[in-house]
From TrEMBL:
The lineage of its organism: Bacteria, Pseudomonadati, Pseudomonadota, Alphaproteobacteria, Rhodospirillales. This is NADPH2:quinone reductase. The keyword DNA-binding does not apply. NCBIfam families: PRK10754.1. InterPro entries: ADH-like_C (IPR013149), ADH-like_N (IPR013154), ER (IPR020843), GroES-like_sf (IPR011032), NAD(P)-bd_dom_sf (IPR036291), QOR-like (IPR047618), Quin_OxRdtase/zeta-crystal_CS (IPR002364).
Amino acid sequence: MTIPTETHAIRFAQTGGPEVMRWEKVKLEAPKPGEITIENKACGLNFIDTYHRSGLYPLALPSGLGLEGCGIVRAVGDGVSALKVGDRVAYCAAPAGAYAEWRNYPADKAVKVPDAIDDKTAAAMMLQGMTTEYLIRRTYPVKAGDWVLFHAAAGGVGSIAVQWLKHLGATVIGTAGGAEKCAKAKALGADHVIDYRAEDWVKRVREITDGKGVHVVYDGVGKDTCIPSMDCLRPRGYLVTFGNASGPVPAIEPLTLSQKGSIFLTRPTLAAYTGTRAELELSAHAVMDVVAKGIVRIAVNHTYPLKDAAQAHRDLEGRKTTGSVVLLP
């Protein structure tokens, strides 16, 4: 196959709303030592992409966008031995730039994809699936009998987490906005679903747990839910805040944690849990295993042409999507 010297990619030169994203022609260099050249077949859309675009998580500008993709290795740089031309790989880590037809990428951050998992599923499952893996298996290791509150249970991470948590034997309370999303969370296996738009969800959690509270809250929503979630925990419970879909979480005084029952608070990131090659492979292989076995079904409910990524961002931020969103080059 002839490798092009130019490709198209979504780039941005200033932070802001979706309108700052541009579909541009860019040069494609030969891979440097330790890199591979990937022809992307599908690109994952994640909330962290909107944080990069808005400047909440700053990138050096101008920059590419997107962390997640699946594609075919078309060239390898010097020193690359674990991957070869023709391998199908997936990835979900920096450097940003997954929103591209072709790209160069560090070989040690890509993993092979088994034939049983198609391109769109692979692109949709890596970041959200590995996020779920480290949250429920390593940040707070959920065990059978635990009570779990998972916010945005019909979203990308939530959809995966509900299924995986039920497999682990947890009792899952999910929140979602609106009847349709609540029905989706229930269909995924959530034991109890609360419409946060129509109900006092803190009160409902206390009622559902007979006043005891849950062992752990997983919150990717942020500003709107994090502080009230403290009142959903039992003594020595864990509040795991891992996203900012509604905005950054306000400052929390350490004394508040003791007043709420000696609870634990952590703000983990995927990068910190996949910082070594061994950790990356552990997480990725765990996700691929539960997907290949059918324990977790990845719902790619929305696809957009890659050049229309700005509209995909608008829909994601407007809470118009459920499950996973994939951009197609």
